Amino acid sequence: MEFKRNIFGKPQFGKRGSAERIIMILVILFAIITVYTIFFRVEYKWEDFQGEVAASMASNFLRFDKLQADKVAEMLASLLNTLALAFLTTVMGFIFGFIFGLLAARNLSNGPLTVAVRSVATFIRAVPTIIWVLIFVSGFGLTATTAVVGMFFHTFAFFVKSFAEAFEEIDKGTIEALRATGSTWFQIVFGAVIPSSLTKMISWLALRSEINFGVAVVIGPAAGVPGTIGTIINNASRAGEYHIQGFGVFLIFLTAFVMETLINRLRQKSIIAGH
């Protein structure tokens, strides 16, 4: 029996559906736009390229031996501040996102309230995190508190959507059975909703922790928030201190690697516990 083969040489079973055609068209369109933008729309100012600066950066980027002890201590402290910023934002967003996620779940809340909560969360999520930070920074100044508040909004909206979808995947029969026995709303939530969604909630929490750490790093130079590792890297880049810049990038990479390892272990344990 002969099979038709696709452009990659793999056997193709049946006819290609409309969804696959749309995806293929979008991929081709995206490729054409990308090529056109790179070769015809982007202006490359090669005359502004400074070869000596690039050479200095390449030769000093990993020269950690030039670092002074006080500078290392300052960068480690700024890294802890960045982690604290991400951690606090994630915890606050998780708590409020869980509460409003229950209200946004269609199987746990009434129609108008669900629509209202989802609409607000969608609006908040549509605005990038950096915009929220800049809004509060412009109104209340450059402090860690304004950075936390700005980052909180997008984190909150993220958890509302994620938790609401996780809660809606719970078997309807379980909830109806609990309601038939006279269980209250809180008994349903703590007796069925949380145990059934705990693994997914941990996964979403781990994912958002990674995202918020990256956001906390970028917010420093982007919004001018002091005391973060991103701000130190930005200042070092402007001053030509490329060994400090390189060490800061190394600290970020090491932290992200450790977080990824711990998060993967936490996910595995939660999956095992869920089964």
Explain what the structure shows:
The model has no long low-confidence stretch (mean pLDDT 81). Helices cover 79% and strands 1% of the residues. The two termini are 42 Å apart. The protein is mainly alpha-helical and 275 residues long. Helix 8 packs antiparallel against helix 10. 25% of the residues are buried. Strands 1-2 form a two-stranded antiparallel sheet.
Strand content: under 5%
Q: Distance N terminus to C terminus? A: 42 Å
Subunit arrangement of the protein = single chain
Low-confidence stretches: none
Radius of gyration equals 25 Å
Number of helices: 10
Largest sheet: 2 strands, antiparallel
Q: Bin the helical content.
A: over 70%
Mean pLDDT across all amino acids:
81
Instruction: Encode the helix/strand succession as letters.
Output: EEHHHHHHHHHH
Structural class: mainly alpha
Number of strands: 2
- Main sheet: which strands, in order across? 1-2
Specify the overall morphology.
globular
Please tag this protein with its features.
79% helix; mainly alpha; two-stranded antiparallel ribbon; 1% strand; 275 residues
Tell me the layout of helices and strands:
Blueprint: E1 4-5, E2 11-12, H1 18-41, H2 51-60, H3 69-104, H4 111-126, H5 129-140, H6 144-168, H7 172-180, H8 185-224, H9 229-239, H10 242-274
Antiparallel strand pairs: 1-2
Write a brief structural summary:
With 275 residues, this protein is mostly helical. The protein has helices spanning 18-41, 51-60, 69-104, 111-126, 129-140, 144-168, 172-180, 185-224, 229-239, 242-274; strands at residues 4-5, 11-12.
